Amino acid sequence: MSASRSILLIIGGGIAAYKCLELIRRLKDRGIASRCILTKAGAEFVTPLAVSSLAGERCFTELFSLTDEADIGHIALSRSTDLIVVAPATADLIAKMATGLANDLASTALLATDKRILIAPAMNPRMWQHPATRRNMAQLEKDGVLVVGPNAGAMAERGESGPGRMAEPPEIIAAIELALAGEVTPPQRAIGFLGRLPGASGANGALAGRHVLVTSGPTHEAIDPVRYIANRSSGKQGHAIAAAAAAAGARVTLVSGPVSLPDPDGVETIHVESAREMLATVEAALPADIAIFTAAVADWRAADAAPEKMKKDGGALPPLALVENPDILATIAQRRAGRPALVVGFAAETENVIAYAQAKLARKGCDLIVANDVGGTGVMGGDANTVHLVTRDKVESWPTLAKQEVADRLIAHLVQLAAPVGV
Ligand code: CTP
Fold first, then answer.
1. What is the pLDDT of residues 178-194, one digit of tens each?
2. Judgement on whether residues 185 and 266 belong to the same structural domain of the protein
């Protein structure tokens, strides 16, 4: 296919630079040619040869190259294109753009262009959340720069997670298509494609203006002051969902049972112990637009928790009478007044996963059940999850994914289901 549309792709210096190779190839498949500038830092992650091989023409790296100036020149380079795309847009490139610095080929082209610019930020979550980056991003959005991502998730750095992962190539392509078609105009952000997770800056995300309520973790039901009934829930899935909703711009209230996880950034986290405390806290946190019940609430509690530590008396075992806990999901889903527009439950099953989830959906009155197969070992407390999205008329099965990935996709899915603000 001959390319009638073209972009100038500026590849910055970040680990996500490798995704640009796939981006170039996929764009070519869609008839969009990429002319590329590789920054000095970008060349530490991908080689000019790899970029030029895929793009089908040489990749530009130097500002002061006589051949380039004679052949095309940096001004022409920045204008003989339909759109400039910066991916990965590092904190450094964003800062240069925000202040108008022009000390290398990439920043000079960005300053000299008369075309629209789309950036795909990628950096460590702390760098993304730093006040300097926040300021620079606000400036860029004011300047009419389009933004896709970043997504929240695990970072290349061990143990780090949060907003800062570059949007995936299909998301960037969707953003490019919309920008080329003129369908997104500043200050609108080029976000919300293919169910992607919008940017973490909050104010402009697809869930901006929404209140999302999430329950997470186990509950502890006291038997006496030192003993309790509990389960193996780690809270990882619920906490990841809360973080993903915050990254999509929502105001998030996370009601968490006892877990050993840090409170997610940008999320109001309320810590509770028992199911009854969790229900009271959830009710107090309403109204909400979306409520996601991820907590593994203990089904039963001791009928009479002993006020003092129970002692062995050398003979008879203590009686342990149980009573059922309130069902928080069902209580909220069946509210007549103030029911959140979208109520999502989870169902941990070991067999007949979909059939049980469908029955649970009807019984509890929620809009969607995320059924997870906990039959194998390692789901409770592990980092991966295999889920099926069950609604009244549909079942959508996802492959085994990291819990953060499940969270990102679920929030993107809910963005599609949620009515626009004000509707
Ligand atoms: N849930 C809740 N309050 C409870 C029990 C469950 O809010 N007291 C919610 C969970 O957060 C989850 C969903 O209900 O979203 C399903 O929980 P699960 O324990 O799998 O289902 P149960 O209703 O307990 O049914 P069963 O134990 O028979 O599978």
1. 788 775 544 333 333 22
2. no
Show the domain range for 142: 6-196
Q: What is the pTM of this model?
A: 0.58
Classify burial at 323, counting beta carbons within 10 Å of its beta carbon; exposed 0-12, middle 13-18, buried 19 or more. Answer: exposed
Boundary (domain end) residue, out of 161, 196, 231: 196
Which of 256, 277, 346, 366 should be mutated for ligand 1, with most atoms under 8 A from CB?
Answer: 346
What is the count of structural domains for the chain?
A: 2
* Inside any domain, residue 313: no
For CA atoms 139, 142, 146, 149, give the dihedral sign.
Answer: positive
pLDDT value for 422: 39
Q: Are residues 13 and 149 in the same domain?
A: yes
Q: Residues 283, 215: one domain? A: yes
Is 231 known to be catalytic?
yes
Q: What is the pLDDT of residue 198?
A: 36
- Closest ligand 1 atom to residue 295 Cα is 11
> Does 191 lie in the same domain as 224?
no
Tell which one of 327, 342, 356, 373 to mutate to probe ligand 1, the residue whose CB is within 8 A of the most ligand atoms. 327
- Tell me the range of 51-60, 158-167, 200-209 where mean pLDDT is highest: 51-60
Q: Is the CB of 390 under 6 A from ligand 1?
A: no
165, 196, 227 - which closes a domain? 196
**CA distances (Å), origin 294, targets 70, 233, 255, 279, 280:** 61, 10, 10, 13, 16
Tell me how crowded residue 264 is: count the other CB atoms within 10 A of its CB.
Answer: 26
